[in-house]
């Protein structure tokens, strides 16, 4: 039975995919099946742009690519025989910039050049049983989860430029494993903890209201960090003045909307709202990260025109925020549904550059929407 399109009503602004969306957005996805390797057969397959013939349905290739490599009924699949049509190792022609790659991570990584990304943001599956659009990630022993991280993290790090930065998300249960795995490849500089209010309370435990983001670099002596780009505008509770009453404001400014001070950010963030149904960025992805959260990472650790890479793209938050802030992006996502959601959000970002909680070049604390310049 064909799945019915979800109907939203009232103030529900959750982004959904219509059947028309799916037909259009599939054409934008880059798909990779298998890894680029040297040719080992003489079947006469001549992939264009040095790409493996298993790369189906991309911007350049239609489903059923007409190259004799076996997809049937318009479906991308394995070649018809064990003798594969393959390209050489040159992946320089692979068009990855500003693209969503719909593929398994380990299949896609070999196509991406080493040291191409200025900033990598990783939001991997936490060590929880979670259903991602029909693909279930199962909770496992701590040691097995750490092995899972080690199966792909070193390869991801090879994509980071020598002076680049990496952020990796986790919760209380998996954060120790994240630290151990990261420290084998990079230098950890900090751990950000952010407050997330969304979620049910626990019956026999403390409610999990926090998550971590590990901040690491390849070269601790030389990396980019723009502190001024991520300052927070907070209301002044005790407005001290130089020389007492009637004097000039001390480290704060007066405005029609109240008294505010720009403050330097710490590694504890309590100004983040998790996407919910009335927010225009919301999707049905179960672990979607807020645009404001990623905007802080991108503004602090990249410059306009830099490349942001996300190996677990989900519904596309990192790519969308990169686009809104004038950066390039590249994301890998296994689920076709989420990859298409990412592309739909990227289309919306053509006309809507707003990031909730960020305006006038600064981040604002919660409950100040009426005071922000639009």
Mean model confidence by pLDDT: 79
Number of discrete helical segments = 8
The strand count comes to: 16
C-alpha Rg (nearest Å): 23 Å
CATH superfamily of the domain at 116-227 and 265-371, by name, is Vaccinia Virus protein VP39
Give the % helix: 10-25%
- What coarse outline follows from CA principal-axis ratios? globular
Q: Class of the domain at 116-227 and 265-371, according to the CATH hierarchy?
A: Alpha Beta
The CATH architecture of the domain at 116-227 and 265-371 would be 3-Layer(aba) Sandwich
Question: Widest sheet: strand order?
Answer: 1-2-14-13-3-6-8-7-12
Main sheet: strands, sense, barrel: 9 strands, mixed
Short synopsis of the structure:
This protein is an alpha/beta fold and 374 residues long. 18% of the residues lie in helices and 20% in strands. Helix 6 packs across helix 7.
Plain-language structure description:
- The model is unreliable at 1-5 and 37-91 (pLDDT under 50).
- The chain is globular and about 70 Å long.
- Helix 6 (291-301) crosses helix 7.
- 18% of the residues lie in helices and 20% in strands.
- It is of the alpha/beta class.
- The two termini are 45 Å apart.
- The chain has a domain at 116-227 and 265-371: Rossmann fold (3-Layer(aba) Sandwich).
- The strands form 3 sheets. A 9-stranded mixed sheet has the order 1-2-14-13-3-6-8-7-12, with helices on both faces. It has a 5-stranded mixed sheet with strand order 10-11-9-16-15. A two-stranded antiparallel ribbon has the order 4-5.
């Amino acid at each position: 039975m064909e799945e019915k399109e979800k109907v939203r009503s009232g103030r529900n602004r959750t982004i959904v995919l219509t059947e028309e969306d799916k037909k259009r957005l599939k054409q934008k996805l880059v798909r990779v099946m298998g890894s680029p390797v040297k040719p080992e057969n003489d079947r006469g397959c001549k992939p264009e742009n040095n790409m493996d013939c298993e790369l189906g349905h991309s911007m350049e290739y239609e489903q059923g690519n007409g190259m004799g490599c076996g997809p049937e009924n318009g479906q991308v699949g394995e070649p018809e025989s064990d003798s594969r049509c393959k390209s050489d190792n040159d992946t320089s022609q692979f068009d990855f910039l500003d693209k969503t790659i719909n593929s398994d991570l380990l299949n896609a990584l070999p196509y991406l050049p080493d040291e191409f990304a200025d900033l990598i943001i990783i939001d991997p599956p936490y060590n929880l049983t979670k259903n991602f659009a029909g693909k279930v990630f199962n909770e496992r022993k701590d040691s097995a989860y750490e092995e899972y991280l080690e199966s792909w993290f070193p390869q991801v790090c090879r994509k980071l430029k020598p002076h680049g930065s990496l952020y990796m998300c986790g919760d209380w249960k998996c954060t120790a494993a994240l630290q151990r795995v990261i420290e084998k490849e990079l230098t950890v500089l900090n751990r950000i903890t952010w407050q997330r209010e969304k979620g049910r309370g626990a019956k026999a435990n403390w409610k999990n209201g926090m998550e971590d983001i590990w901040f690491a670099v390849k070269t601790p002596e030389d990396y980019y960090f723009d502190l001024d780009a991520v300052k927070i505008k907070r209301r002044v509770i005790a407005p001290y003045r130089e020389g007492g009453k009637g004097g000039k404001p001390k480290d704060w400014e007066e405005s029609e909307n109240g008294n505010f001070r720009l403050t330097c950010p710490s590694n504890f963030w309590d100004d983040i709202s998790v996407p919910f149904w009335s927010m225009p960025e919301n999707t049905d992805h179960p672990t979607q990260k807020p645009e404001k959260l990623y905007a802080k990472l991108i503004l602090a650790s990249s410059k306009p025109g830099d490349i942001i890479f996300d190996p677990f793209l989900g519904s596309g938050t990192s790519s969308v925020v990169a686009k809104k802030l004038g950066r390039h992006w590249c994301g890998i996502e296994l689920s076709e549904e989420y990859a298409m959601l990412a592309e739909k959000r990227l289309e919306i970002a053509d006309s809507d550059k707003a990031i909730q909680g960020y305006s006038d070049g600064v981040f604002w604390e919660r409950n100040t929407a009426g005071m922000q310049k639009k």
